[in-house]
Structure formats: C-alpha cells, structure tokens
Amino acid sequence: MNKINFLKPDNQNLSTYLYSGSFLFFIAVLDVFLSSFFEMNITSFLPNFVSFLLPLILGIIGLHLIRIEFSGIKNLDLLNKHINTNTFNAILTLLIIFTIIKSIPPIMSWFFIDANIAGDTKEACTGSGACWTYIKIWLNRFIYGMYPNEFQWRINISFILLIALAFVGLIPSEKIKKFLTLYYVVVYPIIAFILIYYLISGGSLGLEWVETGAWGGLSLTFIVSFFCLIFCFPVGMFLALGRRSQLPTVRYISVGFIEFWRGVPLITVLFMSSVMFPMFLPEDFFMDKLVRVIIAISLFEAAYVAEVIRGGLQALPRGQYDAAKSLGMGYWKMHIFVILPQALKLVIPGIANTFLALVKDTPLIFVVGLLEIVGMLNLAKTNPEWLGFAMEGYVFAAIIFWIICYAMSKYSYNLELKYKTER
Amino acid sequence: MVVLIFGFFTFNAQVNMENRGIEFGYGFLSQESSFDVQFSLIEYDGSHSYARAYLVGLLNTLLVAFIGIIFATIIGIIVGIARLSPNYLIERSAAFYVEFFRNIPLLLQIFFWYFAALRALPLPQDAEAIFGVFFLTIKGLFVPRFVWENLDIFFYSLIAATISIVVIRNYARKLQESEGKQLPVFSISIGLLIILPLLAFLIGGVSLSFEMPVLEQIATTSFKYNGGLGLPPELIALTLALALYTATFIAECVRAGIQGISKGQKEAAASIGLTPNQILKLVIMPQALRIIIPPTTNQYLNLTKNSSLAAAIAYPDLVLVFAGTALMQTGRAIEIVSITMLTYLSISLAISVLMNWYNKSIAIKEK
Predict the structure, then answer these.
(1) Tell me, which fold does domain A132-147+210-418 have in CATH?
(2) In chain B, which residue's Cα lies nearest the Cα of A275?
C-alpha cells in the first residue's frame, strides 16, 4: 500500500483519489442544485459566509483530487484536459457550472412556469412570470403593423409567392440553370416590386389603396431589408469597380462617395432623407417616405458592400487580369466572366456580414415614423391598457431577430464552404 | 452632367427656402436657443446659443463613445482570449455570449436595457448602497464626487512620473542592448507611479475628499439625491448596450489576431527559454496586435457612429440636441443636417488617422 498524499494525486491510489474527489465534487454540485431548485440549504448549520463559499471550496478540492495525469481512464483524461487543467481553470469551470444551475430556475419560471398565455386582457396575467397574453393579442400588429385586418391576406399571398419563387433555383434542369443568375438579379426583383406595388400597396386592379404609413411590423422589416439588399449590391459593385478605375474622375467620385457614407451614422442619413432631401426636390414632386428610406439605406450599405468587394478584387493575383486581357477580353467582359466571379466568392463572409448589419439596422426607420417590429413594440408598450410589459415585447423581438440573423450567418457559412475552391 | 444635377438641386432648394421664408446661412448658431438639456457636461441653459447647444451634444456623444470604447475593449479582450481557452466550458460560454449579443439589433438592446432592465431598479428611497458608496436607482447611478485641493500639483506629479518612466525605459533598453543587463522596468514604473503622487499628497498639499450623494425628500413620495455625481439612466443603458454589442465584434478580432500567429512562433520562443508570460508579451502580442488593430479601429468607429442611436432613448447627444430639438425650432434642415454629418465625418476621420498612425508605428519595419 502506497502512502496517500492528498496534495499530489498520482496514479497509484487512483481509485481512492477518484472516489473521494468525485464525492466532494458531487456534494458541491448537489448543494448548489438543491439551493437553486428547491431552496434548501443543506449547509445552513454553518455561518452564512462559509455556507456560501462551501460548494466552491469543496469543488476545488474535488477537482484537484481527480486531476491525475495519464490515469489510463479515457473519459477522466478527456475531462482533465478540457475543463480541469489547473486550479484556475477548475475555479472558472465551477463558477460556470454553478451559474448555469443557479440561473435555470428563474429563467424557466419566467418563461414557462409562472407565465400566462390564456385570456385576452391584462387581468389574465396573474403569475409572476412573463405575460405572453400580451404578445398573443398584439401578434397581429407586430407582424402587419397598422395594415387593415381585412387586407392582410394580400401581404400573406405576396410573401408566400415570393418565397416560392425564390426556390426556382432548386429545379434541377440544365436548361434553366443558364438563366438563373439573370433570373435572380433582374427578373426576381421586378416580380417582387410588382407584387408589392400592386398587391400590398394596392390602388388599382380593384384593390383598395393602403398608404405606406400603415405598413409596419415584421412584414415591413422584410420588405425594407429585401429591397435594400437587392439595390445595395449592384451599387456597391459599381462603386468598388469605380474605386479601382483608371479614370481619375470616376475614382475620386467613388472614393468620396464611399468615405462619406462610411463616415456618418445611418440615423443622420435617415434624417437627411426625411428633412433635408425634400428641400432639394421640386415642390410638387412627391416621393414616398418608404421609397426615400429604402434609397437612403441602400446607398448607405452600398458603401460598405463596395469596400468588401474591393477587398476581394485586391486579393486576386495580377495574373488573372493579365490572362483575361491576353485573351482579348475588354474591361466589362473581363470583369463579368473572370474577375468578379472569383472576387465575389472570396468575400462571401464579408458580404454576409454587411447584409446582417443591414437587417439589424432596419429598426432605425423609426426616425422617419415608419414602425417596423421594434417600433410597433414601443407603440404597444405605451398603450394604456397594456402598460408594463416592455420586457416580454423586447424578449419576443430579440428571439425573432436572433433567429433571422443566426440563420443568415449559418447560411452564409454553408455558402462559403460550397464555393470554396482550392488555390 | 454632375454639374447639371447639382444645379437642379440648388435651384430647388432656393425655391423651397424662399417659399418657407428661410434664408440659407449659419447666423442662427449665435441666436438664443431657449431650450433646456437635461444632462450636460458644461454649463448650459435656454439662454445660451445654438452653438453652445451643439457643443453640449457633441460632448455628450464623445463621452458615451469614450466610456463605451473603454468597456468594449476590456470585455472584448477578455472574451476574445476566453474563446481560445483550452477549457471547454469557458470557450462555449464566450461563444454563446458572442453569438447571442451580435445577432440582436443594437437598437433593440438599447431599448431592452432602458425600458425593461433599468426600469426594474428600485426608487431612490429604496435603493441600497453598493459597497456603501454607489446608489443604483431608477433615476440613474449616483457615485461620490472627488473633491480635490491643489489638483494641479497632483497632475504635475503624474506628468513627472510619466516622464521619468519614459527616461528609465529608454535607459533600460540601451543598457540591455549594450551590456545585456536587464532592469526591472515594470516594478520601477509602478513604484514611480505610486511614490510621486503620494509625495504630492504628503508635501504638495494635495488633498482628496469625497462628496457623498445624499438622499433628500422633495415631496411626500418624491426623493432625489443631492451632491455626488449622478449618471442618468439613459447614459447607463446606452453605454451598456454599446459596450456589450461592440465587445462581441472586438472579441472576434482579438481571437482572429491571436489565431493568426503560427504555432511555430510560440514553439520557437519556448525553445529559446522564454517563460509563458514572456512569450505572450514579447512574441505573440506584438505580432497579434498588427492583425487586431485595423479591424478593431473599425469597431471603434462603428461604436462612435452607433452612439447616435441615443436619440431613441432621449439621451441628449448630438443627434437629439442638434438634429432633433434645434432643427425643430429653427427649421434649418440643410445647415443642421450637414453640420451634424460633417461632425461625425470628422470624428471618424480623426479616429482612423490616429489609429493608422499607431498601426504604422507597430507595423513590420522592412529593412
């Protein structure tokens, strides 16, 4: 029998160390678990301060005892390598585990256990948790804004059609494949515009006109993001090419344009589009608020897209340009068939980031009085019948935005992998 | 063609302004503003001019950007390093933080902190002191104010300490290059930084006292704090949201920078006998900084520009005070919006020039 040295656990008395260490660790976790889930304090006989720190101390000793190098047990070695490399790491590990255990009950009770969803008035919310009734009642407004209820099918139909049409690219037919780029860059935006102009806006074909001021909610978020995405990309591409142009005038105008937009906050751009821009137009000339906002955001984001694409253009080796020129290609032919396809492939992550930023910037249109989902939340929050549910509203919107943005970033990551070419 | 477009716009602007009875010009800046701002770093009330209001807004913007940048950098570096931790739990928590905060619009986060989280704070009369000195209430954060005597002597001592540290560092470097001896520069610097200001306290007649915020009853149910330094909840919410949001991006920059250093560098440094601390300080960080700084500069710029979202929660920054209230009162859209945009443009350019200069100073010096 070897001497047991608790300061230096080693391979000899492996099971002794292992059992005593695991036991201490288990006690530590159990203590936190019981106090968090059942509000029991099994160490209440100790002074307050000691009772508070005890799980941490027990845990540190326990993890210290099981920190045995080359124990021969695969799982133990993995555990030691990943969460238990030294005392400092052990403390951090314990703190994280305790925080997670401690935070589960309050979060669960706020979200589910003490929350209410039944009923349709404020009085139905009796629990101490979230009042999802509020979200349920206002859901219609959060999605459609002030759009009249009886016409909401128009928004639904247009969005379903647009989503369906977006999947045309999945049809596995060689004949269509050639025209896909043309379809997505030119035809699809035109269809979208027609749908939104005739169906959502109305005013002709026997449909009643709904002014853009009444649009709002999540559907407006989608409309604004969609059009800005479509417009900012080509503008950004031309700006990027302009910035690398041989013609000084074109280059200087592009540089000035890009640096200007990148130097100012979006909120001032929106201010400009709403109060300053109309001053520069003829008096009888009327441009819709929504159109002005879409133009403003598109130009703003185009400057960022331009810088991203410029990075891709610069990353291409000179040989690509020379090779294309030696084949007798002109400027446009060279760029469309050789340079841009390669450059754009390189900058997919950057462009995705810009697009994400665009989607996250859409709530700013509250500046000009358009209320997308965050704006609608602020409106609902001030409704005298539903005061005091700000938290529920923001959590709801945060979840929606998080899903959209996370999905976009994952999609771009897949796209990046798909188009990755070996160099 | 460009000239034609500009001519068309100018003509329209002239016609429009004539119709509204406004004249183009910046003379309105010296007029009395007659509106009040609830939080300002300099003395300001309705009798001051519009130019002064502009200054108030600008200072408030710079204040929030400055605090935000400091906190975002600290959080960003910690999270960025945590992302590279061998500890699985730490790495996952850091990743969770990054993924969570950067996929939610900043405006929503600001609203959340301001309208939901900070509204749950206690009223002034119910607030408990944190560490006995801070009072976090629904009306804002109240902290003790420093009251200095002979502040200038304290500053002189700090300047003297800085100069002597620079001199000693240069001397130590020369000594190391010529004779190979190393001086404990770090401990000497710390010592100087403590001793010289201490001397200023002891002999220079500098004294520091605290003015504590005191609760005062102004009506039966209404209380407020007097004295001390009060930070409005708008400022707290804005800084919190900006710092937490921007920190996620800075963390990714830091991570990319450290990951960008090849493993060979670390191994080579270890093989010549440097300690882990020395490896980080002398080999990894100088190289990683070159990768980290340019994108981080961009994030600082973004934070400064994003601080304009302050207008949404009525923190009196440049956009709210000048492009909001002042614009409403004067109706001079062109002048005010252009001044505001130019201001942001100059702030952006100033930061990027400063960071470019710093970047150049640490870039690889080709021989």
Answers:
(1) MetI-like fold (1.10.3720)
(2) B333
